[in-house]
Design goal:
The structure is a homodimer. By secondary structure, the first copy, chain A, is an alpha/beta fold. Chain A is built from eleven helices and ten strands. Chain A is about 45% helix and about 15% strand. At the A-B interface, α2, α7 and α8 of A face α2, α7 and α8 of B.
């Protein structure tokens, strides 16, 4: 059956994942849901993050969709196992694919991870990396201001430069050769992060890794795929933010509001 | 009847209001509710802010309480009229008292207002000031990064200094003589704001103004008032943040979790 791909994120950051999926599977229709009324997830508790994620994925599967992509690192960190148990369609996360790519990329086994407070606290990246590369040294850093800085579009601001330096300082001492950007907002800061750490460090972007992992048993070939966007709050803000994450041909013409509480 | 005072905020910022109320009414018991599972309110829509605020105040009045204080500027901006209509106990907000104080303070009639994106967008301060002082010139500035900077405890960081300068730049040109800090987190940045704008500018802090407005028909005189704290998420984070807003004798020993969705 010609079902769409479902993508869930706490807000607009997951649009970076949508962009990569649309690039690899141009014939597939997509339903995107952003829980903008309750974002950010990154500084909330395990129970709350898991409950919110399940509520939103319950909504996505009603379309129905043939696969669910959890595009939010924090939601992946706390809800991926219970989601996989609950639904009998494939549930793809952003954590495992990035960890796998980092393990294949690193030469010296020293891997940095940037993420929200909740993602880092969960230890999900540390576990995923050690499962594949037990001797790896993992250096996790919570960088909670990166999301508000990106959402305020202060990408090139001197204050952002200062904060990036501040957060990355411990990583510079640890001689990492690979860095995972463990939050969908962070690729927007990739250039600045790369400049701060030096070009020799390999940067792993979770949106790209996640899209690379998806394999579809039957692919749609339509030339006019249908993209639907749903948020739980503030359509205009979402549309404005979308311009930071999507190329103009993918920008949502229409966004629908669905209250989640 | 010896009922407590109810205080509502989207998170921990309203503790600045609790502190001022406790100072003025040391014999009163207090029930504080912070909707930490869904914060911040400051960049959400009118409908969502109003719905969340009503849900939380519905909970507070079940204790019951003799008065409700809406300690969050954004919630005050969007829900105060409907709350006053709905409940037959006094509902106090933070916006009207601050606007009133600013009107009494200004000499040249040029008043700046700092607030979250939603508070500024609502126009609540502009309306409240013009109702009292029609000839006033009001200069509203949304400064959405101040809350995450305070929550990250980067009060004295050079990046915070840069961002304060950036947000205040338009106000420096407008020759204001009075500035309203229209968010309960901002008093923590008062010194930096004052240094940036110059000492001659009068700074109005909404927590103090709000507490000054409260008059109780019957006051409790107990020497052991009971303070109860409720949050919708993450007790430890709330307790950690409380240290930035409360003196040590008021710090919550116990915080209770109540899911709101």
């Amino acid at each position: 059956m010609n079902l769409p791909i479902g993508i869930f994120d706490s807000g607009a950051g997951g649009l970076t994942v949508l962009r990569e999926i649309a690039k690899r599977f141009p014939g597939e229709s997509i339903v995107y849901f952003g829980d903008t009324a309750r974002l950010p997830y990154g500084d909330k508790s395990q129970d709350t993050i898991s409950r919110y994620t399940h509520q939103c994925v319950n909504y996505l599967v009603t379309f129905p969709v043939k696969i669910v992509v959890i595009a939010c690192n924090t939601a992946s960190a706390y809800a991926i196992h219970s989601l996989k148990d609950k639904f009998n369609i494939p549930v793809i996360d952003v954590v495992a694919p990035s960890a796998q790519k980092a393990c294949k990329t690193t030469v010296n086994g020293r891997i940095g991870v940037l993420g929200t407070a909740a993602t880092i606290r969960s230890g999900c990246y540390q576990r995923a990396i050690h499962a594949m590369l037990p001797q790896a040294n993992v250096f996790p850093i919570a960088s909670p201001l990166f999301v508000p800085l990106v959402e305020e579009n202060l990408i090139a601001h001197p204050a952002t430069e200062l904060l990036v330096k501040e957060y990355l300082k411990p990583l510079q001492l640890e001689k990492i050769d690979t860095l995972i950007l463990g939050c969908t907002h962070y690729p927007v800061l990739k250039e600045l992060i790369s400049k701060t750490l030096g070009d020799s460090i390999q940067i792993i972007d979770s949106a790209t890794c996640c899209a690379d992992t998806i394999s579809l048993t039957s692919q749609n070939k339509t030339e006019t795929p249908n993209y639907q966007f749903f948020v739980s709050d503030d359509i205009e803000r979402f549309q404005r933010l979308a311009t930071a994450f999507l190329p103009s041909n993918l920008l949502p013409l229409k966004v629908n509001l669905i209250a989640m509480d």
